[in-house]
Write a structure and sequence with these properties.
The protein is an alpha/beta fold. Helices cover 37% and strands 16% of the residues. It folds into 2 domains: 36-65 and 348-455, Aspartate Aminotransferase, domain 1; 73-343, 3-Layer(aba) Sandwich (Aspartate Aminotransferase, domain 2), CATH 3.40.640. The protein has helices at residues 9-19, 59-63, 72-84, 95-106, 120-137, 157-161, 166-169, 198-213, 239-250, 302-306, 329-343, 346-367, 397-409, 438-455; strands spanning 38-42, 45-48, 53-56, 113-117, 144-148, 179-182, 218-223, 253-257, 281-284, 296-300, 371-376, 381-388, 393-394, 412-413, 415-416, 427-430. Bound molecules: pyridoxal-5'-phosphate (PLP).
C-alpha cells in the first residue's frame, strides 16, 4: 500500500493538474497555479502536498468534519465493520445500521424511522419522493413542494429544483416541475418597511404562497434550520413557531434539512431543536459521520411511515433503493462519531465556543465599517460585508476572494458564499470543528483581522 510518505508530492500535484476535475473550481487558473492537494489531517489542522499546515475553520471546506481529523477510533470502527460484513442491500438490516437508527431517533423525540442513503442531495430526494408518493396515494393533488429563495438542498437536478440560489442553478435547467419558491427570512435583508415582528411576517409570506397555489396542492415545505451556503442565516424570533402553525393549518408536511446543522453544529443535536418545532421529515448527511464515511439519513415520524404500509396496494410501499445505502461503513462511522460527541461533551463546547467566536467577530465589527452584520448559532457563524452600512450595498465577491486568499496565505482556511446568490456573495462563513478551543478561534479571527486590514478598508 502507498503511504503518504512514499508518494512524490511534486508528481502528485502534477498528476492532479492533469487528471482531476475539482468540485466548484474554475480550472483555467490551475494552469499556472498549483491545485490544492490535502494529504494529512489531525484535529483542526490539515497539511497540503507542499507540507504547509492550515487551520481549517470550515471543517473540510463544507461543514463536515465535525469531530476533527485523524480520529483513529472511527477508522477502527469502519475497518472492523468492513471485515465483519461490508455490504448488503438496504432491503436487509445490518448491525450498525440498526443500532445507529435506534440511537439517532433517541435524540429526536417524535421521529422514529431512518432511511439510509449517501449524500445530502439524495436524502432530500428521498424526502421529495415520500411526499410525492403520499400525494399519489391521495389522488395526486398535494404534490407541490415549497423551498426558500436563499436555501440550498443539493446538487442533483431535482435537489437543485428545490434550491433557491440563482447562481448555483444557472445553466443547469430545465428543472423538475412542482417546486415553488417562498421568500427568505434574513432580518438584515428585511423585505418590509418595518422590521417589527419580522420572523412572523416572513413566515406569513409562506402562507400567502400556500393560499395562492391552493392548499390542496401543497404537500410539504423544505427549510434549512439555519440557511448555510445562502449566507448563514439563523431564523428570526417567532419564525419557526409560525411556520409550524401554518403547516398544521394547511396540512403541509414540515421537512427540515439538517444536512449542515446535524449533528451538533449549532449546540443541539439538530438545529430545529432550538425552535421547539416538530418536523415530519428530517434529512441529514455531512456531520452524521463527520466525513469518515459516506452516509445520509431521511428520518420520518411513524405517521409518515405508516402511510406506506397500505397492504391492499401492491405499489403502495416505498419503492426506492440506494445501492450504497446498504454499505455498513456509514452507520459504523456514525455510531462512533455520535459516541465521541457525547463522551467529549461537544454540544456544550459548541455553545461556549460559539458564543466566544460571535463575541470576537463583533469585536471585529467595531473595527471595520465593512462588516455590516455578524450572525450565527453555535459554531456556525456568518460575517456579511457591505460597502456602506446605511445602504447595505453588498461588498463585491472579489473582496471576499481576496480576504479568503490572504487567510489561506496565513495558514487559515475560511469559507465564503461563493457563486450562490446574484450580487449577494458577500458573507464570510466559519464552521470550525466542534472540538475547537479559544486559542484556535483567536488564530482564525486574527487571520481575518490581518486580511481585512489589507483588503477591506473602506
Ligand atoms: C443544506 C444542505 N442540504 C443539502 C446539501 C447537499 O448535500 P450533498 O452535497 O451531500 O449532496 C448541502 C450541501 O452543501 C447543504 O448545504
Amino acid at each position: 500500500m502507498n503511504t503518504t510518505a512514499d508518494i512524490d508530492k511534486k508528481e502528485l500535484v502534477e498528476s492532479d493538474r492533469n487528471h482531476m476535475w475539482h468540485h466548484l473550481t474554475p480550472h483555467k487558473p490551475l494552469e499556472v497555479k498549483d491545485p490544492l492537494v490535502i494529504v494529512k489531517g489531525k484535529g483542526l489542522r490539515v497539511w497540503d502536498a507542499k507540507g504547509k499546515e492550515h487551520l481549517d475553520a470550515v471543517s473540510g471546506a463544507v461543514w463536515t468534519v465535525n469531530v476533527g481529523y485523524g480520529r483513529e477510533s472511527i477508522a477502527d470502527a469502519v475497518r472492523d465493520q468492513l471485515v465483519e460484513m461490508c455490504y448488503f442491500a438496504g432491503s436487509a438490516g445490518n448491525i450498525p445500521g440498526i443500532q445507529f437508527a435506534e440511537r439517532l431517533v433517541s435524540k429526536m423525540p417524535g421521529m422514529s424511522r431512518v432511511y439510509y442513503s449517501n449524500s445530502g442531495s439524495e436524502a432530500n430526494e428521498k424526502a421529495y419522493k415520500i411526499v410525492r408518493q403520499i400525494a399519489a396515494k391521495n389522488g395526486g393533488k398535494k404534490h407541490k413542494i415549497l423551498y426558500r429563495d436563499r436555501d440550498y438542498h443539493g446538487t442533483t437536478i431535482t435537489a437543485l429544483s428545490s434550491s433557491g440560489q440563482i447562481e448555483r442553478k444557472a445553466q443547469y435547467g430545465p428543472y423538475t416541475p412542482g417546486f415553488v419558491e417562498v421568500p427568505h427570512c434574513c432580518q438584515y435583508r428585511c423585505q418590509y418597511d418595518d422590521e417589527t415582528d419580522y420572523g412572523v411576517k416572513a413566515a406569513r409570506e409562506i402562507e400567502k404562497v400556500i393560499l395562492a397555489e391552493g392548499p390542496d396542492t401543497v404537500g410539504s415545505i423544505v427549510l434549512e434550520p439555519v440557511t448555510a451556503g445562502g449566507g448563514v442565516i439563523p431564523p428570526p424570533e417567532g419564525y419557526f413557531e409560525t411556520v409550524q402553525e401554518i403547516c398544521k393549518q394547511y396540512g403541509v408536511l414540515l421537512h427540515i434539512d439538517e444536512v449542515v446543522c446535524g449533528l451538533g453544529r449549532t449546540g443541539t443535536w439538530f438545529g430545529y431543536q432550538h425552535y421547539g418545532v416538530k418536523p415530519d421529515i428530517v434529512t441529514m448527511a455531512k456531520g452524521v459521520a463527520s466525513g469518515y464515511a459516506a452516509i445520509s439519513c431521511t428520518v420520518t415520524t411513524e405517521e409518515v411511515f405508516n402511510q406506506f404500509k397500505d397492504s391492499d396496494d401492491p405499489m403502495g410501499y416505498f419503492r426506492d433503493i440506494s445501492t450504497f445505502g446498504g454499505c455498513a461503513a456509514g452507520p459504523a462511522a456514525a455510531l462512533e462519531n455520535m459516541r465521541i460527541i457525547e463522551e467529549e461533551n461537544l454540544l456544550e463546547n459548541v455553545t461556549r465556543m460559539g458564543d466566544y467566536l460571535l463575541e470576537k467577530l463583533r469585536g471585529l465589527q467595531n473595527k471595520y465599517k465593512v462588516i455590516g452584520d455578524v450572525r450565527g448559532k453555535g459554531l456556525f457563524c456568518g460575517v456579511e460585508l457591505v460597502m456602506d452600512r446605511n445602504t447595505k450595498e453588498p461588498a463585491p465577491e472579489s473582496m471576499l476572494a481576496n480576504i479568503a486568499a490572504d487567510c489561506m496565505e496565513q495558514g487559515v482556511i475560511i469559507g465564503r458564499t461563493n457563486r450562490s446568490l446574484d450580487g449577494l456573495n458577500n458573507t464570510i462563513c466559519l464552521s470550525p470543528a466542534l472540538i475547537c478551543t479559544t486559542e484556535d478561534l483567536d488564530e482564525v479571527v486574527d487571520a481575518i483581522d490581518n486580511a481585512m486590514s489589507r483588503h477591506a478598508m473602506i
